[in-house]
């Protein structure tokens, strides 16, 4: 069966998930994977859905209009062949610091330069306890290739985080 990748965003409100997944279910779709989040009042979703061949074209044509009706900017595209997975060990990387521009860019560049794949990333700014200063946290799920010396990766991350004045934890999943 064909697979479609659906992305949508718009103002959050109760019922969006039910409406959108209801449309997919009515078309005979089977939800394979999804990520949904409310980002300070803005809803964003990515869905990988498997649909019968007979419904694929109609669903891809109809969903953007249905999305507009729901107040969402929605796109649909064929998922294509799955990418080759990066082989390696799974790790969780967490950082904590006072907010400053470039934290995610600098961390992701270091990981990219070493061939580490970021499988999932959550970053958020929140108010620090007691002081109320903006605290920035990241949590990443990584795949570290077996060829990467873990001790060196830890040292590189610690050196970068020292420059940015942040705490870092790298733990196996």
In short:
The chain is α+β, with helices and mostly antiparallel strands and 173 residues long.
What does this structure look like?
The structure is a single chain. A hairpin with a 2-residue loop joins strand 2 and strand 3. The chain has a four-stranded antiparallel beta sheet with strand order 2-3-1-4, with helices on one face. It has a four-stranded antiparallel beta sheet with strand order 6-7-5-8, covered by helices on one side. Helix 3 (103-113) packs antiparallel against helix 4. The protein is an alpha+beta fold. The protein is built from four helices and eight strands. The longest helix is centred in the middle third of the chain and has 17 residues, at 53-69. It has helices spanning 16-26, 53-69, 103-113, 150-164, and strands at 3-11, 30-39, 42-50, 73-78, 89-98, 117-127, 134-144, 166-172.
Using only CA atoms, what is the Rg?
Answer: 20 Å
Number of DSSP helical runs: 4
N to C succession of SSEs: EHEEHEEHEEHE
What is the distance, rounded to the nearest whole angstrom, between the alpha carbons of the first and last residues? 32 Å
Number of strands: 8
Largest sheet: 4 strands, antiparallel
Helix-residue proportion = 25-40%
Question: What is the typical, i.e. mean, pLDDT?
Answer: 94
């Amino acid at each position: 069966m064909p697979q479609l990748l659906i992305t949508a965003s718009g103002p959050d409100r109760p019922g969006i998930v039910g409406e959108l997944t209801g449309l997919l279910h009515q078309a005979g779709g089977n939800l394979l994977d999804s990520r949904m989040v409310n980002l300070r009042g803005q809803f964003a979703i990515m869905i990988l859905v498997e649909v019968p061949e007979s419904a694929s074209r109609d669903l891809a044509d109809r969903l953007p209009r249905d999305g507009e009706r729901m107040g969402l900017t929605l796109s649909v595209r064929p998922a294509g062949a799955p990418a080759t997975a990066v082989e390696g060990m799974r790790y969780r990387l967490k950082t904590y610091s006072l907010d400053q521009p470039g934290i995610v860019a600098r961390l992701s560049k270091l990981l990219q330069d070493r061939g580490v794949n970021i499988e999932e990333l959550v970053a958020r700014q929140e108010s620090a306890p007691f002081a109320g200063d903006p605290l920035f946290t990241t949590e990443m799920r990584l795949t570290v290739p077996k060829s990467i010396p873990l001790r060196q990766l830890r040292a590189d991350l610690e050196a970068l985080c020292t420059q940015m004045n942040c705490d870092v934890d790298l733990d196996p999943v």
